[in-house]
Amino acid sequence: MSSTMLPLFPLGVVLFPGSALPLHIFEERYKLLVGQSSQTGAEFGVNLTENGNLSEVGCTARVRDVVRRFEDGSFDVIVDGIRRYDLLEFHKDRAPYYVGTVVFREPSQEERDRALLSETLALYNKLVRVVYKDGRFVIDEEEADQVHSYRIAQKVGLDLATRQHLLEVDSENERLELLRAYLKDFLPRLENAAEVDKVARNDGYVS
User: Is residue 67, in this structure, part of any structural domain at all?
Assistant: First the structure.
């Protein structure tokens, strides 16, 4: 596939395709970047930056809504994750904000393992019922055909390294296997109230 130039917004989070993320925009370069995206509907890239390292696989974002504007010119937005890409080259001086040369990844065409999906969904539903109490994030079996692994991954308390690894994995079934193994290991720990609070408190995504 051919490469393209993409505005970049490095952040200390991992954005998944199909997820939504609230952002407070206050730096001038990102007010310009996100403002342009809001006006035109153009995508920009979100790459995880941690300890001075920029992850090579990112996810594009598109502004869904400008939630609030402040007197100092900063504003709050909600962005939607759209598609994954590989960052080939990072440019600091081609625009007022960062720009990357990227290649977009094609979605996997593999047939999903329905038994694996069903088991992973059951574990996920058990977790969100404990953590979020009101059942608003429960996924019914009727929705299974439309459910992607990244939707499951949003709400289950994954650390940044695991989130980034899931973003990089191309196989949907492999991602489901990783989530199933994580949930089987993690669910017994929810008997500890501190673990429940940690998952709920550190959930940076919105529904």
Answer: yes
Number of domains in the chain: 2
In a domain, 206, yes or no: no
pTM: 0.90
| Ramachandran category for residue 18: left, alpha or beta (phi over 0 → left; psi -120 to 50 → alpha) | left
Q: Residue type for 203, please?
A: D
Supply the CATH number for residue 23's domain: 2.30.130.40
Kind plus residue range of the DSSP H or E element containing 58: strand 57-69
| Alpha carbon distance 81, 124 (integer Å) | 21
Q: Quick check: 19 and 80 in contact, CB under 8 A? A: yes
For tokens 């993690």, what's the residue?
A: 186
Classify residue 109: in a domain, yes or no: no
Cα(98)–Cα(8) distance, rounded to whole angstroms?
5
The reply to whether 180 falls in a domain is yes
- List, in order, residues 6 or more apart from 179 with CB less than 8 Å away: 120, 124, 149, 152, 153, 156, 166
Domain of residue 85 covers 4-104
Check whether residue 181 and residue 89 sit in a common domain. Answer: no
DSSP symbols for 1-51: ---EEEEB--BSS-PPTT-EEEEEE-SHHHHHHHHHHHHH---EEE-BEET
**Average pLDDT score, the chain:** 91
Asked if residue 81 has pLDDT above 80, the reply is yes
